[in-house]
Design goal:
Layout: E1 2-4, E2 10-12, H1 24-35, E3 41-42, H2 43-50, H3 59-77, E4 85-88, E5 91-94, E6 98-99, H4 100-112, H5 117-129, H6 146-169, H7 173-186, H8 191-203, H9 207-224, H10 231-241, E7 256-257, H11 270-280, E8 285-289, H12 296-303, E9 313-318, H13 328-339, H14 350-358, E10 363-368, H15 374-387, E11 391-397, E12 407-410, H16 416-427, H17 433-445, H18 450-460, H19 465-470, H20 475-478, H21 493-501, H22 506-515, H23 524-531, H24 541-550, E13 555-557, E14 560-562, H25 565-577, H26 581-602, H27 608-631, H28 635-651, H29 655-667, H30 675-686, H31 700-709, H32 716-733, H33 736-749, H34 755-772, H35 775-791, H36 795-812, H37 815-831, H38 835-852, H39 855-871, H40 875-892, H41 895-911, H42 915-932, H43 935-951, H44 955-971, H45 982-991, H46 995-1005, H47 1009-1016
Parallel strand pairs: 1-6, 7-9, 8-11, 8-12, 9-10, 10-11
Antiparallel strand pairs: 1-2, 3-5, 4-5, 13-14
């Protein structure tokens, strides 16, 4: 992992992906650790710097929370990242192996130790390219960072002075005058900068200006410092007055070149510059390969200024002006004209003359924009390299030359942060929180292509950035003007893509425009199916795709062919012009229907994980396929697609997407019944919404799905009957997965009766799911076994089973299940007395549930936080957490959940002394519990009412209720476990009875359970 402090604090994975470090305190912690990367930072210093105004009540614990957040962010970005943050007395340290400041200091030290001017210049350029802005720019006002920032900025200035001196030694004085003048505006008292500036002016033929600036500098030093310039400046002044020949640059260090000076700085390519320079020392033919507008030419200018080591000459030949398909001789004539080679037919062809001219010269030849003359450029390059042994060639092209020995360097689009930096810099924007999201959207939708970003930046100077982002659907009109001074093919976004399009043959154009129907790339088999037809045979598609990849119009990434968004928009226009849009989109949709139907049965077996990933990759295209089918009125295909993909959406927790898709399919034929209609009802229940009208169910799959979705909601007798019918049908059909699914539901819902029966169902379901290879089913049955272990008080077993289920959820990427399992582990932590851990787990579960917009998972997490709050003595907070979920359960008709939440609210009311509220809540909870038939729910209500009577002065009534509760729990095979005894123990103490008295009193005096309940409810 790479860390950056030379600019805004940044972190990247080894492959260059940016790592998000959340929250200012966590970023502050990281900045502090990076500043002191030579050893551990004491914990008390870290706490003081994180909370400079007021320390928290427990600084060590608060610091540990931030350390954990930092470790988690690094681990999520790259496996093993957690270990980078280590505890080492007296505090913490960061085991970072790649920090840009460390590399900067290493490069500058190596430069100062290197005698060769060109090598020293390269090292200094590499070092300074690492800077992305002021050091730790986002911590400029932080007290703890000031010394480090000052040290780094001082080192940067020294490196700039070193660089100026070595560039002067290499004869690069003209370009230096402007740069040094700007530096002196910011640092007017730096003597080395003044010396370099004066010498640059002198060598540029501006001796009068040099002497005039010396006088101004001397006056400034006298006014500000009260001193004269030091001896080096005085000696330079005398040498300029006498026009000392020693001030001239040595001829042997000058580089002959025609390279233009870059108009603007390079952004986001710093590491590439160093890598390409290194390649040029090892390879004689290097090709920068990338899509139009990606910045290949700008990168060349950065690589070659100053000239790479070993090059006495650097010449750039712009080939864009050559006619497409020009001959090698015509390209050679362009090279000859640039090099000044005499036009003498008697000396042979132009290629021969150029080769003879370059023989024995240490030269770097840049062939810029070769794609439209790639064959001629390749032939000429091969000839020149064979006859000029000290020649190196660097090319830029959208299609490599394809020569032996060619080193191809892909030039990718800019990553997110670099794209934002380029756009805001060129637009002159100061990025505010309000602009951050639209700016990121602009950069993402323009694919990080520098040309497109610069065109958009021009428009951003005249319109708000959020409006610019909103208008990118019409990007070719929006970015059709605004960039002057470049070649015509780069003055608009359309012109850039037109240039590449017109270099393609008809079959390549056909495949390219048809690829535009894919929303998020495509696998090779999809490309072959969708792009074939007419003049393009299916067997030719792979070769045509390969050629399009080679020409930088198609990107092959992760086994999928992708178009950049701007190229896709262009090709969609071309597809419409060809009159193929509906035909190709329908072909695309049919392919995805077939794919979904192939995937559906495999989501229940050994290939579950692999097919989840396949459908993950195709998700955007499945949405696009459904949109096509709805738009074209293809009801049958739309129902087939939705019916096949619905289980995938459920597993991934994408309930909103699934509900929208089902509604869209049913809109084509509202009266249609079948599994799509069943899924509509099931998805409403999964999402926590009531279902007014039950669909007609004609299959075992439908019966099971509705029963599974209705657990805890509505009439549980109906659920039981559904499960019975489904089980009979599955057994008759020999459907082991269906049998397991029913047993899992029955074990979860308690339809099999006692605890032992539920455990047998769960164990049988787990065995069947394991035999089928269904990891989701194993996860769900493990979850139930964990819950059953919790009920009987075996918390260690319960925790182990829930952790097993948690691992399965993480492995499959089932984030909703992950939320449920975190909450379950939070319950176990609470029952074992670790309330802090219980709160942390429930909060994390709640965040995941919120991300998935899953109300059931949110209820489990929020109710868990309510339980924790009550056990911490925060009774008002507990009521605040619990009340909304009682209303939610009432709305859905969820009796089991409602009985539990009412009991918890009743206990909270009783503990804060509000006996009337506690009595009402527990009575309502008892009425609901009696309707569930769950003896444990009835027992909990009895225990709550016992508390009300104990505090109300009726200990015998309390004792009878406690005895009735104990009997109810024993009848269910689930006596009250240790972790749930706190309320009963508290109430027993208030009633001044013990368990034995309560039990004996209940046996001797109490009426049957139903009569006890009736009396409490005022029914007798």
């Amino acid at each position: 992992m790479r860390f950056g402090v030379l600019g805004v604090l940044s972190v990247w994975t080894d492959d260059g992906r940016p790592v998000r470090i959340p929250e200012l305190k966590v970023r502050t912690l990281l900045a502090e650790l990076l500043i002191h990367d030579d050893g551990p930072v004491p914990a008390d210093k870290l706490a003081d710097d994180l909370w400079p105004d007021r320390l928290p009540a427990d600084p060590a614990a608060s610091l540990q929370v931030r350390v954990s957040q930092l470790r988690r962010a690094l681990e999520e970005a790259e496996p093993g990242g957690r270990a980078l943050v280590a505890h080492q007395p007296p505090g913490y340290l960061l085991r970072a192996t790649s920090v840009d400041s460390r590399r900067f200091l290493d490069l500058t030290a190596r430069a100062r130790a290197t005698p060769a001017p060109r090598t020293r210049a390269e090292l200094l350029s590499d070092a300074l390219d690492l800077w992305r802005g002021p050091a730790l720019a986002d911590f400029a006002d932080a007290h703890f960072a000031r010394a480090a920032i000052a040290g780094l900025e001082s080192a940067r200035l020294a490196a700039l002075e070193d660089q100026a001196e070595v560039r002067l030694a290499l004869g690069d004085h003209a370009a230096l005058t402007t740069e040094l003048a700007a530096l002196l505006d910011r640092h007017p008292l730096r003597e080395r900068l003044w010396a370099a500036y004066l010498l640059a002016l002198y060598r540029s033929g501006r001796q009068g200006d040099a002497l005039d600036h010396f006088r101004r500098m001397r006056a400034l030093f006298a006014a500000e410092l009260g001193v004269d310039p030091g001896p080096p400046l005085a000696e330079l002044h005398a040498a300029m007055l006498s026009q000392d020949p020693s001030l001239e640059v040595a001829a042997e260090t000058r580089t002959r070149t025609n390279l233009p000076a870059p108009v603007a700085g390079l952004v986001g390519r710093e590491h590439m510059v160093a890598d390409i320079r290194d390649l040029l020392t090892r390879s004689r033919l290097v090709t920068l390969h990338g899509v139009g507008g990606v910045g290949k030419t700008r990168l060349v200018l950065a690589v070659c200024a100053p000239a790479p080591a070993g090059s006495a000459e650097v010449w750039m030949i712009e080939l864009a002006g050559a006619a497409p398909g020009a001959s090698p001789e015509e390209v050679a004539e362009l090279v000859a004209a640039t090099l000044g080679v005499r036009d003498d037919a008697s000396a042979g062809t132009a290629a021969d003359r150029v080769a003879d001219s370059l023989r024995g010269r240490r030269a770097l030849l840049i062939l810029d924009n070769c794609e439209h003359v790639v064959e001629a450029a390749a032939e000429l390059a091969e000839l020149l390299l064979s006859r000029a042994p000290q020649l190196t060639i660097l090319t830029t092209t959208r299609e490599p030359l394809g020569l032996a020995g060619e080193t191809v360097v892909p030039v990718p689009p800019l990553d997110g942060p670099s794209a934002v930096e380029l756009f805001t810099t060129r637009a002159g924007l100061r990025l505010t929180p309000a602009d951050a999201e639209p700016v990121q959207a602009v950069c993402a939708r323009l694919d990080g292509i520098p040309l497109a970003l610069e065109l958009a930046a021009t428009r951003a100077r005249t319109m708000p950035v959020h409006e610019l982002a909103a208008r990118l659907d019409d990007r070719f009109r929006l970015l059709g003007t605004g960039r002057r001074g470049g070649p015509a093919r780069q003055q608009t976004l359309r012109a850039t893509i037109d240039w590449s399009w017109h270099l393609l043959g008809p079959p390549e154009q056909t495949v390219l425009r048809r690829l535009a129907v894919h929303a998020d790339g495509c696998a090779p088999d999809a490309a072959g199916h969708v792009c074939a037809g007419g003049e393009v045979r299916a067997e030719d598609v792979p070769d045509l795709l390969g050629r399009l990849v080679g020409r930088s119009l198609v990107v092959l990434s992760g086994g999928r062919y992708r178009l950049l968004e701007s190229v896709a928009a262009y090709c969609a226009e071309r597809l419409a012009e060809a009159g193929e849009s509906d035909e190709v989109r329908l072909r695309h949709a049919r392919w995805h229907v077939d794919l979904a139907e192939r995937a559906a049965p495999r989501l229940h077996g050994h290939d579950q994980r692999a097919w989840l990933k396949i459908l993950d990759a195709e998700s955007a295209d499945i949405r696009a396929a459904l949109e096509t089918l709805v738009g074209l009125g293809e009801a049958d295909l739309a129902h087939r697609l939705v019916g096949a993909v619905a289980w995938y959406w459920y597993l991934r927790g994408r309930l909103g997407e699934a509900r929208r898709a089902v509604a869209a399919a049913l809109s084509l034929d509202p009266a249609r019944e079948g599994m799509v209609a069943v899924w509509r009802a099931a998805l409403e229940l999964f999402a926590g919404s009531a279902v007014e009208e039950q669909p007609e169910v004609v299959s075992a799959d439908g019966e099971w799905l509705l029963a599974f979705a209705q657990w805890g909601f509505g009439d549980q007798d109906v659920v039981g009957r559904r499960l019975g019918r489904a089980l009979a049908a599955f057994l008759e059909a020999g459907d082991a997965w269906g049998e397991a699914a029913v047993l899992m539901c029955r074990a979860r819902s308690g339809f099999s009766g006692d605890m032992a029966g539920r455990r047998r169902d769960a164990e049988r379901a787990h065995a069947l799911f394991r035999a089928a290879g269904d990891r989701w089913g194993q996860l769900k049955s493990t979850e139930i076994l964990g819950t059953l272990a919790e009920v009987v008080g075996d918390y260690d077993l319960a925790a182990r089973l829930h952790r097993d289920a948690l691992g399965a959820a993480e492995e499959l990427g089932l984030w909703t299940e992950l939320s449920f399992r975190l909450s379950a582990l939070g319950r176990i932590a609470m029952l074992k007395g670790d309330l802090a851990e219980a709160g942390r787990l429930h909060e994390r579960a709640g965040r995941l549930a919120d991300e998935q917009a899953n109300q059931a998972a949110m209820e489990f997490a929020q109710v868990g936080l309510g339980l924790v709050a009550r056990r911490q003595g925060h009774y008002d907070l507990a009521e605040e957490r619990l009340r909304p979920w009682a209303e939610w359960w009432r709305r859905l008709g969820g009796t089991d959940g409602l009985a539990f939440v009412l009991a918890e609210r009743g206990f909270a009311a009783e503990q804060r002394g509000n006996l009337p509220a506690a009595r009402d809540l527990h009575r309502e909870g008892l009425a609901v519990a009696l309707g569930t038939g769950d003896a444990r729910a009835v027992a909990l209500a009895f225990e709550g009412l016992a508390g009300v009577h104990a505090l109300g002065g009726d200990p015998r009534r309390a004792a009878e209720l406690l005895g009735a509760a104990a009997a109810a729990r024993e009848s269910a095979g689930a006596p009250l476990p240790a972790g749930e005894r706190a309320d009963v123990d508290r109430i027993s103490a208030a009633a001044q009875v013990d368990d034995g008295f309560a039990a004996s009193y209940s046996r001797g005096h109490a009426s049957p359970r139903a009569e006890v309940a009736e009396r409490e409810l005022g029914l007798s």
